[in-house]
Every structure is written in C-alpha cells, then in structure tokens.
Write a structure and sequence with these properties.
Structural class: alpha+beta
Distance between the termini: 8 Å
Strand order of the largest sheet: 1-3-2
Number of helices: 1
Helix content: 10-25%
Number of strands: 3
Radius of gyration: 15 Å
C-alpha cells in the first residue's frame, strides 16, 4: 500500500484587515517543496473576526521513502 507523509505551512495574513501575504516568499517555498517531491493538495485561510483572514495554511503530501504499491 502506498503511504504518504504530510507537511503543513502556516503564513500570517498581515495588514489592518488581514489578507496580505508575501506571495514571492510563498512561491519560492512552494517551488522548493515541489523540487523535494512535495505536492500541494490544499490551501485554506482561518478567520480572526468578521471575515478577516488570520492565517493561510497550505498542506503538502509526498510518498514516504520506501513506500510501494501493494500487489
């Protein structure tokens, strides 16, 4: 059976009402993780209050070392 490992990254949504993120930083980190075999599977935000974004959370997965398909 194939087995996966998961990694979560959390980014602060800055600014007066939230929602501002450092996109160049996120892009560089996502590219690096992709080169390491991580696949982005989900991105969501968490709310602080009244719809303001507090954090952006990205979930990545990749096959565990030595993982294989069951025959």
């Amino acid at each position: 059976m194939r087995q996966f490992e998961y990694k979560l990254l959390k980014y602060d949504a800055k600014g007066l009402l939230g929602g501002k993120v450092d996109l160049p930083q996120m892009n560089a980190e996502f590219d690096q993780l992709g080169q390491e075999g991580w696949e982005l599977v989900s991105v969501f935000d968490t709310n602080s209050a009244y719809g303001e974004s507090r954090w952006i959370v990205a979930t990545f997965k990749r096959l565990k070392d030595g993982a294989h398909r069951a025959q």
